[in-house]
Amino acid sequence: MSQHLSKKQFAQHMENNKAKFYRLAFCYVKNEHDALEIISEATYKGFINLGKLENPEFFDTWMSRIIINCAYDLLKKQKKYEFIVPDDTLPAREEDLSVDDRLDLYQALNTLQPDERTLIILKYFEDRSFREIAETLKLPESTVKTRLYRIIGKLKSAVSV
């Protein structure tokens, strides 16, 4: 028999992960207001559908998927698909890049589709494993790897042009 989270446990998990969830939302919309709107909507949807979470140990993955879907919904509504990552979520390697290289990286990320950006964000900015990404996106792990390597190739081409 599966164990479900209580309302109190849901609230505690949300509190414990609020910074991580906010960063995830912010990566899509690049502003505090919209990121908070996404988190609010995702929290509501998560709370309403709490009974559908069959395994509490996958709470982070489950909520990440809800946040990503809410971000997509907001972006579709606003027709905003440009992408700039906030400085505090950039990988440490980014410090080694010159200003020109950073601008090239941001421009390259702007060329990606939202689903491609999701893979990059989850892998390199959220530091998720291939398995965690696969669980979050409900894709086979091999598909995640293949798509990610294809996207990296696409980014390398865009940066080297």
TrEMBL record:
Source organism, top-level taxon: Bacteria
Record GO terms (molecular function): DNA binding; sigma factor activity
RNA polymerase sigma-70 region domain residues: 16-80
Gene Ontology BP terms: DNA-templated transcription initiation
SUPFAM superfamilies assigned: Sigma2 domain of RNA polymerase sigma factors, Sigma3 and sigma4 domains of RNA polymerase sigma factors
Domain RNA polymerase sigma factor 70 region 4 type: residue ranges: 103-154
CDD domains: Sigma70_r4
Keywords recorded for this protein, A-Z: Sigma factor, Transcription, Transcription regulation
Family that this chain belongs to: Belongs to the sigma-70 factor family. ECF subfamily.
NCBIfam families: sigma70-ECF
Protein name: Sigma-70 family RNA polymerase sigma factor
